[in-house]
C-alpha cells in the first residue's frame, strides 16, 4: 500500500457526513492509503439508533476494516427470522444457515448502528492520513478549474474552505451535497408515518415462539418486531390523523405494546422515534468529482434491513475505485462504473425488495393476502427457493452479481481475489 500514500494529486478525499456510511468510507480509504478528511456537522459522532441489522455481505466487508470481531462481541446473531400474520401466527420461518457454505456469516447481526460509528471513530482518531472535523457544517461546494473540489464550511471559528481531489456526499436523506449539485431525488413518501419504540420487556416471553426478528402482516396495523442487545423493538404505522405528540406519548406507546402482547405491569419505554418513510433514488450518483452514497443517494422502507447495508456497500465500492484512481486508473471510467452499478442495485434490489416487503405486510385485499402467505410458505418449504430467497435478503446475490468495487468491464466471475481494491 505504500505507493498509495502519495494520495490523489488534487488533495485528500473529503467525506461529508460522520454517520455509519461516511465512517466506513473514511475507514476504507484510509485502509487503502488514500488521505481523507471527514466532515461532520455534529460536535461528536452520531448516536442515531434507528438501523440495527448487518447482513452477511456487509459483515464480509466490515471484517476487512477490522471491526467485525468487536461487532460480534457486542452484537446479537440471529440466524432465523419469521414472517407472521397477526391473527394466524407463524406463516413461514427462514434460516440463514442455508448459506453456511457461501459465507462465514450465515445470519443477521443485530447491533444498533451507533456502535459501528463509535468503533470506527475510535480507530480513525489515530489512523495516519485521516483528519476528523466535527462541528463543521457544509454550506456549499464547487468544482475547481482543472479538477478537484472546494467545500465551503461553517465552523466554530467562522466560514472556512477545504479543497480536495473528490468529495463524497454521505450526509443523509436531506443531503446538502446532493442539493448543491442540483441532483433530483425522485420517488415518493409513504402516506403513513412509521413509529419505532424500544422496551426492556422480553417480547419472547410475552409472545412465546416468536423469533428474534419478525415481520408481522396485518391489514389494519402491521408490525415489525426485533431484538437488539439492548432491548426489544417494535415498528408500526401511525394513523394520519394522530398527532406527533399523541403518537410519541409514553401512555400511547404502552397501550400499543399491550395491543401487541398483554404484559402484567406494563411496558417500560426506552426509546421512541416517529419518522417519515420514503422510496427515493438520486437521478445520478456522480457529478464530476463529487459522488453520493448511502441515504444521500437512496432511501427506502426499513422492511428488510438493507438500506444501511447497501450504503456501506456504496462506501467500500467507491473507496476501492478512488484507490485505483490514485494509482493512475481512468477516473471517469471508474466513477461512471460506480454510479451506474450502485444506482442499478439501489433500484433493482433495495427499492424493489423493500417495497415488496412493505406491501406484503400491509396488504388489505384478502385474496392477495392469502396468496402472499401461500407463496411465503412455499418458498420456505423448498430448500432451493429458500436458499435463493436468503441470498437476496442477505445482499449476497447483488454482491455476487455485481461485485464491490470491481474495475470497469470486470464481473465477479472474471475477478480474482487480487481485485480487493
Task: State the gist of this model.
The protein is of the alpha+beta class.
Structure description:
The protein has 421 residues and is an alpha+beta fold. The chain folds into two domains: 228 residues, FAD/NAD(P)-binding domain; 89 residues, 2-Layer Sandwich (D-Amino Acid Oxidase, Chain A, domain 2). 36% of the residues lie in helices and 26% in strands. It contains 13 helices and 22 strands. Strands 6-5-15-16-17-14-18 form a seven-stranded mixed beta sheet, sandwiched between helices. α9 runs antiparallel to α10 and α11 packs across α12. The N terminus and C terminus are likely disordered.
Number of strands: 22
The structural class is alpha+beta
> How large, in whole angstroms, is the Cα Rg?
22 Å
| Estimated helix fraction | 25-40%
What name does CATH use for the topology of the largest domain?
FAD/NAD(P)-binding domain
Distance between the termini: 10 Å
Amino acid at each position: 500500500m505504500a505507493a498509495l500514500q502519495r494520495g490523489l494529486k488534487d488533495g485528500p478525499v473529503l467525506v461529508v457526513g460522520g454517520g455509519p456510511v461516511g465512517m466506513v468510507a473514511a475507514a476504507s480509504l484510509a485502509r487503502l492509503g488514500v488521505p481523507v478528511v471527514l466532515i461532520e456537522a455534529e460536535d461528536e459522532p452520531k448516536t442515531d439508533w434507528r438501523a440495527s441489522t448487518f447482513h452477511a455481505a456487509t459483515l464480509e466487508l466490515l471484517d476487512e476494516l477490522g471491526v467485525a470481531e468487536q461487532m460480534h462481541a457486542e452484537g446479537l446473531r440471529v440466524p432465523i427470522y419469521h414472517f407472521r400474520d397477526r391473527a394466524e401466527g407463524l406463516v413461514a420461518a427462514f434460516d440463514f444457515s442455508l448459506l453456511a457454505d457461501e459465507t462465514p456469516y450465515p445470519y443477521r447481526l443485530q447491533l444498533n448502528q451507533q456502535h459501528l460509528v463509535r468503533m470506527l471513530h475510535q480507530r480513525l482518531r489515530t489512523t495516519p492520513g485521516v483528519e476528523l472535523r466535527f462541528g463543521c457544517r457544509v454550506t456549499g461546494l464547487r468544482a475547481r478549474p482543472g479538477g478537484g473540489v472546494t467545500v465551503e464550511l461553517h465552523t466554530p471559528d467562522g466560514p472556512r474552505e477545504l479543497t480536495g481531489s473528490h468529495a463524497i456526499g454521505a450526509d443523509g436523506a436531506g443531503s446538502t451535497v446532493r442539493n448543491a449539485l442540483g441532483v433530483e431525488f425522485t420517488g415518493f413518501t409513504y402516506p403513513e408515518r412509521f413509529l419505532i419504540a424500544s422496551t426492556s420487556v422480553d417480547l419472547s416471553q410475552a409472545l412465546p415462539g416468536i423469533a428474534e426478528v419478525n415481520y408481522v402482516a396485518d391489514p389494519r396495523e402491521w408490525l415489525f418486531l426485533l431484538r437488539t442487545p439492548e432491548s426489544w423493538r417494535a415498528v408500526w404505522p401511525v394513523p394520519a390523523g394522530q398527532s406527533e405528540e399523541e403518537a410519541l406519548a409514553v401512555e400511547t406507546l404502552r397501550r400499543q405494546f399491550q395491543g401487541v402482547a398483554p404484559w402484567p405491569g406494563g411496558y417500560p419505554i426506552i426509546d421512541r422515534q416517529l419518522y417519515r418513510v420514503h422510496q427515493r433514488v438520486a437521478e445520478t450518483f456522480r457529478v464530476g468529482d463529487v459522488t453520493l452514497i448511502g441515504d444521500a443517494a437512496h432511501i427506502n422502507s426499513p422492511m428488510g434491513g438493507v438500506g444501511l447495508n447497501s450504503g456501506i456497500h456504496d462506501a467500500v465500492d467507491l473507496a476501492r475505485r478512488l484507490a485505483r484512481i490514485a494509482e493512475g486508473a481512468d477516473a471517469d471510467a471508474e466513477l461512471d462504473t460506480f454510479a451506474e452499478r450502485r444506482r442499478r442495485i439501489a433500484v433493482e434490489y433495495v427499492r424493489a425488495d423493500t417495497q415488496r416487503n412493505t406491501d406484503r405486510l400491509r396488504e388489505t385485499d384478502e385474496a392477495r393476502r392469502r396468496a402472499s402467505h401461500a407463496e411465503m410458505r412455499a418458498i420456505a418449504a423448498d430448500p432451493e427457493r429458500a436458499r435463493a430467497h436468503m441470498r437476496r435478503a442477505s445482499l449476497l446475490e447483488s454482491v455476487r452479481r455485481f461485485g464491490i468495487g470491481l474495475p470497469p468491464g470486470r464481473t465477479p466471475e472474471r475477478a480474482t481475489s487480487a481485485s480487493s481494491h
